[in-house]
Amino acid sequence: MKQFIVRFVRDEQGQDLIEYTLLLAFVCLASAALFIGAGNTLAGIWSTTNTILVNANSLATKAS
């Protein structure tokens, strides 16, 4: 049993797979964070644009 545990601890097969999986998980989490931040930014841009257009429309209808 002791030899099995020693071989298991020293065995490095599959280590690359675990490292690539962790790297992929990190990339996915970072991408999700960026998309959430970009979504909030785009919502702010659309909100500002909508306010400007509503104000321009009200001024145009008052002028005519």
Gross morphology:
rod-shaped
| Helix-residue proportion | over 70%
Q: Would you list the SSEs in sequence order as H and E?
A: HH
Report mean pLDDT, rounded to a whole number.
86
Q: Segments where pLDDT lies below 50 for 5+ residues? A: none
- Computed CA radius of gyration, to the nearest angstrom: 28 Å
Report the total helices.
2
Cα(first) to Cα(last) distance is: 92 Å
Question: Beta-strand level of the residues, as a percent range?
Answer: under 5%
Number of strands: 0
Major beta sheet summary: none
Q: Structural class, judged by helices and strands?
A: mainly alpha
Outline the structure in words.
- The radius of gyration is 28 Å and the shape is rod-shaped.
- It has helices at residues 2-10, 15-63.
- The mean pLDDT is 86.
- It contains 2 helices and no strands.
- The longest helix has 49 residues, at 15-63.
Question: What's the layout of helices and strands?
Answer:
Blueprint: H1 2-10, H2 15-63
Could you list some keywords that capture this structure?
64 residues, mainly alpha, 2 helices, 91% helix, rod-shaped
Brief description of this entry?
The chain is an all-alpha fold.
